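dumping this here so i dont lose it again. seq + smiles for fe (ii) ion
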Amino acid sequence: MTPTFDDHRRLERLFEALVTSAHEGDPLALRERWSEFERDLLQHLADEEATMLPAFARQRPEEAKRILAEHEDIRRAVLALGIDLDLHLLRESTVRELVHRLREHARREDASLYRWVHREVDPWRHPHVV
Ligand SMILES: [Fe+2]
Ligand SMILES: [Fe+2]
């Protein structure tokens, strides 16, 4: 399904929960939060790539390329941190860095990709954008 701004807000709540768990240091809670975060985030990236980015790339190829490259970086980072988590080596500061990068990525998309989708493709599903 085509993502909307609400997906970024929903993911933001997962980021918050993940940072809180990393801070509290309960490994079981962190594992649970991580699984939810990883599943939803990877699905979100796949949905953007399947539904929004192909058309966006025809209009704004450089920006689309940049977003796709960021997706690859994000996937690599999530994989690496998942391995750290399995080895009980995942640090709060590393989680915070990842969440910071994800927020930057979402902000960038809000201002470019989502704004474009709202204007050009599907205004009814993106009512928050002006
Ligand atoms: Fe994205
Ligand atoms: Fe996104």
